[in-house]
Every structure is written in structure tokens, then in C-alpha cells.
Amino acid sequence: MIPIKVLVPSGVLGLGFDIQALSHGIKNNPDIISIDGGSTDSGPYSLGSGTSKYSRAAIKAEWKTLMIAREKANVPLVIGSCGTCGTNGMVDWMENITIELAEELKQHLKIAKLYCDQGKNYIKKSYKLKKILPLNPALKLNNKLIDEMTNIVALAGAEQIQECINTGADIILAGRTTDTAIISALPLMKGADPGSSWHGAKVAECGALCSTNPTSGVVMVEFDKAGFTVEPMSKNAYCTSETVAAHMLYENADPYILHEPGGFMDVTNSNYYNIDKKKVRVEGAAWNSSKNYRVKLEGAKITGYQTSLLVLLRDANYVKNIKKWTDKLSTFLKKEIDERMNINTSEYSLEFRHIGFNSILGELEKNQESPVEVGVLCLITSKNKISTEIAKLINPFLLHFPLSTNEELPTFAFPFSPVHSDRGCVYEFTLNHILELDDPMDAFQIKILEV
Amino acid sequence: MSTLGEKVKKIRSKNAGPFWITVDVFCGDKKVYKDVRNKLKNSKISSLFMISEQDLKRFEIDNLNVIKFSFPRKTIQGDIFDRDMHGAQLAVLLSEMKF
Questions:
Q1: ipTM score
Q2: Cα separation, B45 vs B52, whole angstroms
Q3: A17 Cβ partners below 8 Å, 6+ apart?
Q4: Are residues B20 and B70 in contact, defined by beta-carbon separation less than 8 angstroms?
Q5: Distance CA A232, CA A215 (A)
Q6: What is the pLDDT of residues A121-173, one digit of tens each?
Q7: Which of A248, A397, A101, A318 is nearest to B24 (CA)?
Q8: DSSP bridge partners of A230
Q9: Closest-CA residue in chain B for A298?
Q10: Cis (ω within 30 of 0) for the bond into A440?
Q11: Do B15 and A251 touch (CB under 8 A)?
């Protein structure tokens, strides 16, 4: 069965890919088509709320193209981390899309679903048994925090994807998985070099980002007993030893080591060289199995409810003194909120960001030049929905608050009506931990259906 | 005196998971790489990003002429006080640094 060819249409479903490159990939007879469906890259909202970052229509359109390609190639199609966060609900969401498309396309399919949600009781029990260990930086964990989490998922690795492949499914809809596992699973199963299976998967996990033309999306990776070869499928994309090697740097805190369920990959001794203008050959990555099988956990909880207000200031004196203005305003408002609403500062947070000065870098900003205008973004976060009411109390002062007592009442620019925007629930990540398992399937379930 | 950004090919920063930031300095060629590697001290990086030197990881990747720094982020990604979820604008601090 070696070599094994894995076709990766893009870094994530929803981002788009070059259709011609995909059809070129299909012509090259892949053994499996693997695509990622999610990440924590956009912050905690997706996991916290259990929703997809991308629109359903965008996902459906791209998934349709891949389902047609899959039927043509007659190989399994795998998606990992369904619906951005990979919760069970998002696996079912993806199943729903798949069933709609199967009907439209008149395809008969065997579908395997991999569930990665973790129950709170199971997590509490594992924590008590010291099966949950903190990673660096360590976050606080206790039963109360576990109870507060809205979603907890474990990241599946190659073993769980292999279980799904073994069911003979045409389509595998996986919950949260590592980006690499959906690519490495088949080559590892078929006896390809383990270090290279993970390394090739890491190189291809962002699609054509490892090439000269990242937006073209599609890459093919061929795995064998000694290494792997990567080739972009677009006519206008090239892999060079540098673009491939450099991909290990991207979004990786450590450019040599990658931890995965069951061990870690080490690419310190890897060699990269161009076979031709497009293809790069890589050998030399090592795989180190760990004694215990561990999977990473992700969790999120509600921080509170947030309301924002934006006011714009053009008056040169106010622009120059913006920090002084918001400091003064903040002190004044906290007193008003306490006196008029009977709400203590411990029940909410009030923050002002100066757009034009240092709204991105904050205290790290070195450039102290004064801009022509400044936007003041006011953020209120409260444990309950009172943030809207606080924003309404703030509104007139944001519009008229004077720097000094002896001046005519100023009026600044509000760009919106209503001025406040309710941002709803905001979430925070709560887990940076690993979970030890006796068997890789202990924390995961597979469901099969035929349509 | 020029800036580091003017001297090297590219500087980028990015979140590496929700808890880390990583910064890649692509020096372009061996000569610049050696120069930057020797002159760019960890103490300078830690003061620029206001992190402790102990938390800073440094990698010198000879075959790519890249110097890489990774450190835990001061606010977790998406926290209410986070100002740049992807941390990609942090690279500017290094780019605009006098070198």
C-alpha cells in the first residue's frame, strides 16, 4: 500500500481553494482527502458558544465540491474539528449539511462521526485521579471551574481517526482533532515512517501555505517508509525547500518539536531538498512515543456580558489630552454607577482604549506621536446583563464630558445610533491541560450512519 | 541608525495556540543573520515585550537564517483585556526597533 497519497484541499474548510488544483489533485489518485474544519485561532467564542466561525452557506458550497471530488476519487473524505470548535453539536451540524448534499447529489454514503465532547463528571473524576495535568502556562482548575465551562473537548489524534477509517466510511466527520492527525492517520496505518507521517502532516496542515502561493490551497503529500514528498497542485504554486522548512515556524512556539496524542515529533535532523521545481522531499524526522497516551483538552466558559460604545474626538486639545480625559471620565463614571445604580466596581469592568494612540499595543507602544483624531472604545463587561444599562448611563458623559470645569460643554462625535452595541456573551479559554487515557478511545465515541 | 525591520527580510508574529506568542525574524542571508544573532540580546526582547527573560524561548535556525522568539502571552487570547487576538501586530515593535 505504500506510498500513501494524502490530498489536502486547503488549510481549513471555508477559506476557499483553487478548483483546478483540486481536480488536478484528484487526477493524481489520492488515497484519502483530508481537510481541517477548525481551530482555536479565532479566540474562545466558537468553543464557548459551540458555533461555527464560518457561514453555513460557505461551508456547504465548499463541502459540496469536496463531496463530488471524493465520489470521483472513490476514497475517504475526512474533516477534522467540524464547525471550528469540534463539539458534538458541530459534528451534527456538519452531518446535517452532508445529508442535505447527499440528497442533492444523489450519493449513497457511509458516514462515521467522531465525538470529542467531554462530560463534566468524567473530567472531575479524571482530575481527582490526577489524570489531568497542566501545561505551561498553567491555568487554575477546580470543580467549580469545571461546572462553569460551557464546552469541553479533547483533541483526537491519529488513533481515533484510524478507528473511523477502519469502519470503511466514505466520509468521516470528526470533532476536535489535532490539525495533523487527519493527515497522518492513514500513512501511519499503512506503515509509513512515523516521524515523517507527522512531519508531512504538519507541513500540509495549512494547505498551500507551505508553498509560494498560499491562497491556491491544494497540496498533495506522498508518504513512504523513508520520508515524504510534498507538491502543490496549482499550476502557479511551487514548493521550495525553504517554503517547506519555514512552515515549521508558523504558529509553532517550538520550531522543532510538535506534541501529539501518544508522543512527540522532532524535526531537528530533517533534510529538505527540491526534487524538481515544484516538489520537495523531506526525510529525517523522528517520532518519540510517550509512555502514557495523552490528549490535549480545550474548554471555555462565559466571562460575562459585554457592551461597547465608540466616540470619536477631533478637537486638538482633547486628542492631545485623551489619556487624561478618559482617566478623569473613568473616575467620575465609577462614582456615578455606584451612586445611581448601586453597582460596585467588583461587579463589572470598564475599559477605555484609545484608537489612534495605542489601542493595539497598549503599554508596549513606543510611538508617542499625537494623531489627528482619536477613537475612544469603551468596553463594559459585567457578570450579568447589566452592561447595557451601564452603557446607557455612560452615554451622555461620553458625548459631553469636559476636561476642565471652566469651559463650554463640549460635544464629540457619535458614529452610531444606538451608540451602544451589545456584544452578548463573551467567553474565555479555561483549559491548558492534557488528559491521560488508558485506551485512546476512552474519551471518544464513534457513530455510524448510512444515507 | 536604521531599524531592525530595514535590515532584515521580514519580521512576523503570531499566536501559537491561545497561550503563546511567537516571533520570527527572517534575516535573509547569512551575513545579516550572524550580525542579528550576535547583537539581538534576549534582555532587549524581554524589555520590548515586557516579559521576564526566564519565560523567553530563543531559537537560532541556521539553515533558514531565522531567529525565533516564543513567550507566554500576557493576556490569554480572547480575554476581555486582549487587544490583538492573533498577536500579529506585535512584530511591529521589533521592526521599528533601532538596530
A1: 0.95
A2: 9
A3: A9, A10, A62, A207, A216, A217, A218
A4: yes
A5: 11
A6: 999 999 999 999 999 999 999 999 999 999 999 999 999 999 999 999 999 99
A7: A248
A8: A221, A280
A9: B18
A10: no
A11: yes
Task: Give the three cell numbers for residue A371.
Answer: 494623531
Rounded CA-CA distance B51/A301 in Å is 27
Write out the H or E segment, with its range, that includes residue A353: strand A348-355
Are B80 and A254 inside 8 Å of each other by CB?
A: no
Nearest C-alpha neighbor of A290 from the set A127, A81, A437 = A437
Task: Please indicate if any CB of chain B lies within 8 Å of the CB of A364.
Answer: yes
Which residues of A fall within a CB distance of 8 Å from B19? 135, 137, 429, 432
> Residue written as cell 470529542?
A116
Distance between alpha carbon A300 and the CA centroid of its chain, in Å? Answer: 13
pLDDT tens sequence across A19-53? 999 999 999 999 999 999 999 999 999 999 999 99
Contact A207, A17 (CB under 8 A): yes
Q: Which whole-number Å values give the CA distances from A252 to A35, A271, A281, in the listed order?
A: 19, 19, 21
CA distance A153 to A115: 9
Q: Would the CB atoms of B90 and A364 count as touching at under 8 Å?
A: yes
Are residues A95 and A113 in contact, defined by beta-carbon separation less than 8 angstroms?
Answer: yes
A257 touches chain B (CB under 8 A): no
What string of DSSP letters covers B11-51? EEEEESSTTEEEEEEE--SHHHHHHHHHH--HHHHHHHTT-
Write out the three cell numbers for B70. Answer: 516564543
- CA B17 to CA A149: how far, in whole Å? 19
State how far the Cα of B37 lies from the Cα of A425, in Å rounded to an integer.
Answer: 45
d(CA A364, CA A440): 44
Of A97, A95, A91, the residue nearest A116 (C-alpha):
A91
Contact at CB, A428 and B84, closer than 8 angstroms: no
Instruction: Give yes or no for residue A1 having a pLDDT over 80.
Output: no
pTM: 0.96
Phi, psi for B11 (deg, rounded to 5): -130, 130
Q: Is A42 exposed, middle or buried (0-12, 13-18, 19+ CB in 10 A)?
A: middle
| Helix ranges restricted to H, A74-148 | 88-105, 120-128, 143-148
Subunit contact A40:B17, Cβ cutoff 8 A: yes
- Give the C-alpha separation, A312 to A196, whole Å: 54
Cell 497540496 sits at which residue?
Answer: A219
